Amino acid sequence: MNRDAARRIGRIGGIGRISGISGALPVVVLTVGAWQRRWVSDDGFIVLRVVRMVTEGHGPVFNAGERAEAATSPLWVAVLAAADLAGPVRLEWLAVGLGILASATGLAMASAGATRLWCAGADREPARITLPAGALVVAALPPAWDYATAGLETGLVLAWIGGCTWALATWARATDRRVPAAVAVLAGLGPLLRPDLLVVSVLLVGVLAWGADGPGWRDRARVVAVAVAAPLVVQVLRMGWYGTLAPTPVLAKEGTRAWWSQGWRWLTDGAGPYRLWIPAFVLAGLAMLLSARLRRREPGPARPVVRVVTVFPLAAAWWLAALVRAGGDFMHGRLLVPAVMLAAAPVAAVPVPPSRPGAGAGHRWVTLAAVGVLVAWAVPVAVAARPAPPEVGRAVNDVRAFSVALTGRTHPVTLADWGAAPGGPRAFRTRPGVALYDGQRPVRVAGRPLRARPALRPPVIVAYGVGLVAYAAGPEVRVFDALGLGDALTARFALAGRGRRPGHEKVSPPAWTWGRLVAPGEALDPGAFPLPELLVADRAPTVASPRLRRLTPAGVRSVRRALRCGRVARLADAVEAPMHPGRFLRNVGFAVTSATWRVPADPLRAARVECRRRGESRVHHPR
User: Fold this and answer.
1) Angle (CA) 462 396 479, round 5°
2) Domain membership flag for residue 494
3) Is 18 a residue whose pLDDT tops 60?
4) 331 vs 576: CA distance, rounded Å
5) Total structural domains within the chain
């Protein structure tokens, strides 16, 4: 081997090491940051409760014998359930570990996909350096560290976005651009991760169908059919099993209704502390620069690549607009992280043109300057930028900081960390009949021991912050979610107004709670099931009505009358009657016809509305 060849090989190897180290840096930062801020949220414990129901043989439900879809991510529940059945690791730690692994994998695949987009052409320079750009933005965000764990599906969503980036880049760079079935299936999985990711899947599948090689519309139709097959099957199963078109949290949060003012508040709360407009401008400029250069160098092959590069930020903008319209979220930055990942994925890693005279020299220095700006932005954000301290009554809060302050633990992961293990200050304690749990003190009987309705097997727990106590209580205890995330009827209450926090406006009034849970003949206890102070601070519409806050005999009678009438009784059939083929088909029909149906939270009005026709005043299934 001559000296020139040896020098060339050494140069290529050195540049490869530089690219590899720089590409791995964001993944390491994200992994370390996520581990340093590991935790499981109360909403995460809701998911773990559903997973435990699956592994115990009750199916994907919140309470045994009551079919309510309390988890919004069927795919995340399936992943956790499979992992829980496969090994002896505690479920809380499985959620933490798999969340971090999925987040890191997603970021690595996004970088690999971006490298393939920009560096896989026929005239690719073998010694081209790639540097992290969009990957730096995701890795530096503290909310990305927080919600890589939390027990929620965010890590899996990042893995999906990264996988789609790599798959679509591979397809766009292939000489034969027939869409493989696996790529179409992957692009269509969005609704199985979160219902609102349907808008992202629509755009990704649209790009694949538009650019598919084939004889014509049949090939495009095949791409769409393969992509929608899995979500469609799951949707039919959801309708037949639960009797609804959407999970109960979607109904409880009224995710299809517009609340622009709160959505803007959520967006500015998430983006403001991190000055996200800075990396947004830089990444947009990099994408346009690289696309223009690619069009000049590879006019033909550039077309599908530019489509892929365009569709990801377009999907991010569309999804972000849908979130803002719906009011966003009460958790600081949680849903902003996938949107940032979507926008940054096509430029997660960018090539640096070789240092030779000509047109590439200007591009080289512009690229290096852009990456330098991103580094200068990322370091202070990762080190010092944090949201405002949590405050009771604020619309959007740093929920992790609130959980740390509540538990006194830096990493509240397990039940013991949360004080909910046996002997802890928030431990579940079995009591006879119906009991109230306020989320901060031990379970206490609501006034005195109350007998549960005959159809309910005690003990029954009433909770307004339901995740932790439900998971601690175990599958054998029925937990009534008074906020509707795990209760099919409360989730369908009519929204009388907006409170401070999205998803916390629907509250089961004491009359509904008593009428649904307590056995007939029990002497009324006006002090039972008091609404917690946190909901008062949130200004939930139910709390704002003095009449609904009171527990009266007339209210309880109206509730029990409404339970025997109309669609309320049919809903009881849908979620509690034994499942068989006929019940499944009837549930599908009920899901369609009751999609927009809501029950008045006022018991007297609910009884009048649901029992206005004599033919509907009958019990369909014993409650």
Assistant:
1) 15
2) yes
3) no
4) 32
5) 2
